Amino acid sequence: MSTFIHQELFLKFQQHLDNELELKEKIRAIVREIEQNSKEAAIHLQVIHSNIEKVPQACLEARKCFDKCREGYKQLAELIPPKQYYKYCDQWLYNTHRVVFLIGLTIYLEAGFLVSRETVAEILGLKVSQSEGFHLDIEDYLMGILQMASELSRFATNAVTLGDYSRPLNISRFVSDLNSGFRLLNLKNDSLRKRFDALKYDVKRIEEVVYDISIRGLAPQVQTQAQADEAEQATDSTAA
Amino acid sequence: MSTFIHQELFLKFQQHLDNELELKEKIRAIVREIEQNSKEAAIHLQVIHSNIEKVPQACLEARKCFDKCREGYKQLAELIPPKQYYKYCDQWLYNTHRVVFLIGLTIYLEAGFLVSRETVAEILGLKVSQSEGFHLDIEDYLMGILQMASELSRFATNAVTLGDYSRPLNISRFVSDLNSGFRLLNLKNDSLRKRFDALKYDVKRIEEVVYDISIRGLAPQVQTQAQADEAEQATDSTAA
Amino acid sequence: MSTFIHQELFLKFQQHLDNELELKEKIRAIVREIEQNSKEAAIHLQVIHSNIEKVPQACLEARKCFDKCREGYKQLAELIPPKQYYKYCDQWLYNTHRVVFLIGLTIYLEAGFLVSRETVAEILGLKVSQSEGFHLDIEDYLMGILQMASELSRFATNAVTLGDYSRPLNISRFVSDLNSGFRLLNLKNDSLRKRFDALKYDVKRIEEVVYDISIRGLAPQVQTQAQADEAEQATDSTAA
Amino acid sequence: MSTFIHQELFLKFQQHLDNELELKEKIRAIVREIEQNSKEAAIHLQVIHSNIEKVPQACLEARKCFDKCREGYKQLAELIPPKQYYKYCDQWLYNTHRVVFLIGLTIYLEAGFLVSRETVAEILGLKVSQSEGFHLDIEDYLMGILQMASELSRFATNAVTLGDYSRPLNISRFVSDLNSGFRLLNLKNDSLRKRFDALKYDVKRIEEVVYDISIRGLAPQVQTQAQADEAEQATDSTAA
Amino acid sequence: MSTFIHQELFLKFQQHLDNELELKEKIRAIVREIEQNSKEAAIHLQVIHSNIEKVPQACLEARKCFDKCREGYKQLAELIPPKQYYKYCDQWLYNTHRVVFLIGLTIYLEAGFLVSRETVAEILGLKVSQSEGFHLDIEDYLMGILQMASELSRFATNAVTLGDYSRPLNISRFVSDLNSGFRLLNLKNDSLRKRFDALKYDVKRIEEVVYDISIRGLAPQVQTQAQADEAEQATDSTAA
Amino acid sequence: MSTFIHQELFLKFQQHLDNELELKEKIRAIVREIEQNSKEAAIHLQVIHSNIEKVPQACLEARKCFDKCREGYKQLAELIPPKQYYKYCDQWLYNTHRVVFLIGLTIYLEAGFLVSRETVAEILGLKVSQSEGFHLDIEDYLMGILQMASELSRFATNAVTLGDYSRPLNISRFVSDLNSGFRLLNLKNDSLRKRFDALKYDVKRIEEVVYDISIRGLAPQVQTQAQADEAEQATDSTAA
Amino acid sequence: STNSRQEEDVVDTPVMAAFREYAKELDDKHDRYERIVKMSRDITIESKRIIFLLHTIETRRNNREKVLEDAEKRLRAVCETNFLLIARELEDLDQNQYLRAFSPGLQEFIEAYSYFEYLKDSSKLSDWDDLQQFLTYNIDKPSSTKENETKEEKSLQEQTVAKKQIVCTIKPVEFILGLADLGGEIMRRCINSLGSGDIDSCFQACRTLQTLYAGYLRIRPVGNREIPRKITTLRQSTLKAENVCYNIKVRGGEAASWDTLDTAGFAMDKIAHDDEDEGFY
Amino acid sequence: STNSRQEEDVVDTPVMAAFREYAKELDDKHDRYERIVKMSRDITIESKRIIFLLHTIETRRNNREKVLEDAEKRLRAVCETNFLLIARELEDLDQNQYLRAFSPGLQEFIEAYSYFEYLKDSSKLSDWDDLQQFLTYNIDKPSSTKENETKEEKSLQEQTVAKKQIVCTIKPVEFILGLADLGGEIMRRCINSLGSGDIDSCFQACRTLQTLYAGYLRIRPVGNREIPRKITTLRQSTLKAENVCYNIKVRGGEAASWDTLDTAGFAMDKIAHDDEDEGFY
Ligand SMILES: [Mn+2]
Ligand SMILES: [Mn+2]
């Protein structure tokens, strides 16, 4: 090679390519670990469809898994150079959606309300704003919440089977709220939009369950919306 | 909407969506401006194929255009939040490749050597390392350099037509160096790889021109490689 | 013509291909035979959707068909050279999945439990481990089991139509157990994974049937999970 | 043009192309006519989904449309050279499937049984065997019949809405028979196979309708399969 | 199965499917045989690219292969029912195009002119008009001829390498004639049209070969078009 | 049936579609006529690749064809309702591009300069501005001009074969001028852009021909750019 | 984004001079196209918002009159401001030339307007000719947006300066495409009405969808690929609405049977009073 | 990545217990697959590097012997280390089961080896049977990587413990696919030889490609979709090499004619001496 071009440039570039490959493999290994832990949480939480008594225990176990996930995200945060979040995030976002769903479900089971983005971020050790560091985007939070709605519709059905008639009413208000919120948005034609379109069917199924309960007078009590709102906090202890 | 979910969440998210749309449109406007300026530089530099005397003037004009491009990149750098470079970069990289090519060509015409990534970055007001701010990735630098090689192969042909027999020899060593450098790399099957595959044909065409010149004894002088290297700096003044 | 490359190489290869083709055609003939027998078993077992009284008889007929399938697999085992199972297995696996499904269904109808891989292998005259000879892979066993779950969801619906309200409860526990089992597996992104994703819909449908029965008080008796487990063995005789 | 090639060849070929174009345009005009008439029949028969009383009248109107279709097929038969049926049949088969479906539906509504290929052929003025002339292939007959099954699943739903609870039971037996028939076949991986796969969903949907009626005690009477078979002939007159 | 549908319909249809499958397999076996023979002819004719002296011998060998192809077509003609040519022809047309190409090439090498459709049909034992029986459509003849043009463009290149400078001139006139002929046609947007579009590149490539020869004064003699036309008959004997 | 939606709406719409279809078929007939005439012009002009002496005659013949095309366009202009040009223009634009190309070529052969849009419009009896009536859009004019450039690259090659070394020099300046012109345009990512991208290859090919002539000293005379400009008008008479 | 900057330094050939003109013409077209696209996007967004507003009508909320009034005002505003802008851009031009630029907005507007009519219980759906009058404008003077017109054009316009009609044409095909989307909204209405217990609305929606679908079955869409796709979607919407009605029927029937058993009289009672109170969910 | 962690807390049904076993079996397979993929990737990279090394052979640099020696050492090393690892993984298994995992590496190795033979001027290209011996290993004892084997298996192996042959099978199809890629390398060799003025190599490469292409024409690839694709690529490589020779011929012919005119004797002289000196570029 002559004086025109320094071979060094290409050595440096090869170095760059090798580094990137290595980084991607490290990310993949961590993501697989997080995935494994989130899967475990999912298995614990399956109990909601068959045995309501075991729910509190399942929530505790799930939280242990989330702790392990947090460790994984911590490793990711250390690994990814600060400004390169968007260069690599496709590798873990799919799994993040699932973890958000599972955390949302756990919080709902424990406390009966919608987990906030701030709380999810805290549980996973993520920042809320990207300026502060490795963060949780609002889109990804919402993707997880929509996944949760789908699980709740199944939960409503099985709760009835297990003889719990108040849970579906509670779920119905919860999911209906979510639906109203999403209807306010002008969504682009992306994955979030598709997921939201699926929500409508979850809403419908839950409404049918509520209808079935109501028509048979199985609803715990006739209550006005105001009463319903009051009753809300109480519900969960009854149900669990 | 009830107490489960605060409508605020969705208002905030809508705000977020709107902001993003607005940001994208601003980026698009700036990129269009940069594009216009790089196009103008390209038009000036076309003169290399028809009138070698006007080359120095064309380089001056092109540099004015690069100044305007730098202004555009400055605006982009101010617009894009620091950590979101990779979220939006697809919008301007295609054009960046062209500007790198044109700067590379200008420097080669003016001084006869390969522009370094550092120099390109400086001309465009970009950083070399992404940790310092809005930067020029090495992949994008190389994409531009490969585009330049293609233009140089055309230049070699037309230089002969215009009676300049030393230019092709110079170009040949230049492009052959580039080729050797790229052959050292393990490239993935991406756009850079495709562009490099095209380089081989440019190399071949230039070699044919050199062959034609040599066979007819039109080469300025028979020289050893060592002499060639020495002669290199002198060549450009002769050629221009 | 180059002397380095001898045309015999290609003639030898073509000979090899021709031999392989011949073997493949022999396999195809046997597989078609097995297919015919498994189809017949499927037709017999269709009776579950219309006439529950005829089920025991259908199981007997199906078992005759499985015997014929076993003969087919025996022929295959003799035909395939040792350690070439995976070279040709694509030709029969599609059908193996169906036979596994039908055997699983038959055993469930007869005895109410999940057929083991060992039992399926025995019925079809296959080995369980690859080292012992012509065998049944775990993936293929699982594919068949998932197909069965789908048929059971249809069975649950039609059982209600035919006035049998205990069968769906039994199916629900059976499939839910299966679902928990599958959740333990780490599935790659392959056909097994896709089929497993479909299981969710089967589970949901069955849960809805159970729900319909429960909310109308049509379930044979309200029982705790513990009682349910006890009752399980008894159910099948009642239902059949 | 020189002596190598005679221009005549191309003139002759152009003639051939022109003839073919003309033939195709004639076919297209006739097919459009048939299409229009089959569409009109379809519109008349839409009434089954909203007003059962008007069904007999709709059948009469549909039959008038079939008469017009027959005229179209007669023209086609005269136009197509005997050996070229399969060269052009793609132009009309799509529509033939629809006409078969509509005839099948009409006969089912009028008489409650599955129209035979012979009857369809007669109504459309086609031969059954291709050796006799312009004919109706069995595949095309079956494609139409499968389309009909899909419409019947919609009909079952709407019949319930219109308060007719016996119709779905009848449809269920009808479509289940069809399903059993198709299960006997070894279909290739072609359009008929795809259509048959869709039939499974129609069957499932109809079974769910019957399930919904049964679990709510809306079915006209609880009857054993044996009784059902007896009752079958009587049902249609009641329903129509 | 109940009274709705006669199982017989499906048995009859299965019979029909089985017959068709058998016919197709017979066709496939014959076509494979023809393919093998045409491939062998192709291999013999490859010699034009490396050894011009062996061309006459290669033509003889190729003709033997065509004889074997004719036997295959004879078997096809006996097998296919008269009215079903267009139902099955897709199975062999692809190969027919190749045989036509090879026959065209052989005739061009032997005699220097374009083979007529009649001659091709005769060599392969086919009829020219479909009313007479198993025939060769003009489209298929032309597809083969266009394939030949592509091979001739390669031949022109290699002839130069082998030191034959007159052959390319002859090929150029030949292919240019073909091109003029096709330009007369109004082609639909089909495979023939696509193949014709490719011809343009072949023409261009051959013209470039002639250009390269001419600009270097390698052409056998400078001659006017008039002289060229005269010389044409003589050329072939020289070249072969 | 709902009274809100009246079926007349759809009948009215179908009427509208039928009328449109009729008009489209009339247009198609005229366009086919124009196509035939432009094709004939193309055939006449093919002579440039084989016999330069016949070029003037070919231009005369081509002009007769353009006259016939003009008649066709006149009929179109009468047929298309005012301000509906853009509703139907897709039917003839493809052909218009070809006619523009052929007129451009003819004018270049006759007079050596680029035909203006006004002249093309005049020859075809079209208006230049949309407000005056049936017109020739700038995009369509440019598409035709780009097609011409492609033909000229082939012409340059064949001119050398025919011994005319001045023509390629003339073409090179002509096309290079055209290229500079096109670079001034801001093209969207449409078909014009794609066609313009292809121009680069034409320019390159022509430059290589000029290169071949120059390096062999075959150029009519060594001249400065200034002399070249002067010489330009003279060239064409020499060449033709 | 013109090329005026280079003009000084490059010596022009006649070809270059001509191409500078061409560049201007192309830029003009392109700019106009972009402007119209933006106008159309505004119409799309506003139309979607009006549809959203119309979906808030609920019998039990008793807000029908109010919402319809609001929606009508906003629909008129779209005609009188947004479409007027487009009509000005298209003045004297062949409307088909920029059709693709404003077609999305136009179709969404047609969808919104026809959905408004549906909810208003109009006796008859307006067709394209009816709607055309909303998008026809009388203007006093030549529009000021056109500046680069030639002198002849100007003098021609001066003669008609007093009054001039400009339009934004609704082509029948656009209408039919926009109307097809109405099916989706009515289907949504059907599902939402089920949610709020307004059974009558469900059946009305289903009947309307069936009629709409039957109408589209009449169309023989030669050479238009979008219409068949829309018909497929419309069929699916119809099936969904039919399913809703089916569910009402089977569940309603069930309720009736429970009712006769006197175990669920209370529940039925609730259904009857749905119109007045907040319902049970 | 096993599921051992859950085992404690969940009460197992028999189904669950069985599935835990299945999970292990699946994980084992998957892990083995991944290990083999990585081994294959190493072979691919090293083979590509050997090919790159072989391309550095240039007549004028006189480095042929040295490079061939190096390449042969590295090829042997690939056989004796990398492929041995795979053979150990596949011990006692049906080789076809993990074929897709190591096929890329194997094909690249075949390409490298046959390119080595080509440059070595071997009298005859080795076929799959010839190469197979390189990938056949005699090992002293059962491999230690297999730990979860059953007792019976162990006792069986103990009988044969003294000597055992393990292999990494080269299937004919793999060989044919790998060999097809040789075409690309020979084409590259042809182009590079043109660059360094080694005309003989160009013609040799072209002839070899023509022969190779003719060989592939013989194959009737029933049911294999990759072979036709490779043949298309091979045809293109052949055409490229033919074009190179064509260019040498027309330019060489031209040089000859210039030569007779005695104006370029000097240039021809240079070509003749290309083998010794550094050439003119
Ligand atoms: Mn909509
Ligand atoms: Mn390779």
From TrEMBL, chains A, B, C, D, E, F:
Listed GO CC annotations: cytoplasm; nucleus
Keyword Nuclease among record annotations: yes
Residues where Mg(2+) binds: 151
Biological processes, Gene Ontology terms: RNA metabolic process
A GO term for molecular function: sequence-specific DNA binding
Keywords: Cytoplasm, DNA-binding, Endonuclease, Hydrolase, Magnesium, Metal-binding, Nuclease, Nucleus, RNA-binding
Protein location: Cytoplasm; Nucleus
CDD domains: Translin
Location, primary (coarse class): cytoplasm
Keyword ATP-binding included in the entry's annotation: no
Pfam annotation, one family: Translin
The protein's role, per its UniProt record: Exhibits both single-stranded and double-stranded endoribonuclease activity. May act as an activator of RNA-induced silencing complex (RISC) by facilitating endonucleolytic cleavage of the siRNA passenger strand. DNA-binding protein that specifically recognizes consensus sequences at the breakpoint junctions in chromosomal translocations, mostly involving immunoglobulin (Ig)/T-cell receptor gene segments. Seems to recognize single-stranded DNA ends generated by staggered breaks occurring at recombination hot spots.
Quaternary assembly: Ring-shaped heterooctamer of six TSN and two TSNAX subunits, DNA/RNA binding occurs inside the ring.
Family in the record: Belongs to the translin family.
Protein name as annotated: Translin
Species the sequence originates in: Hermetia illucens
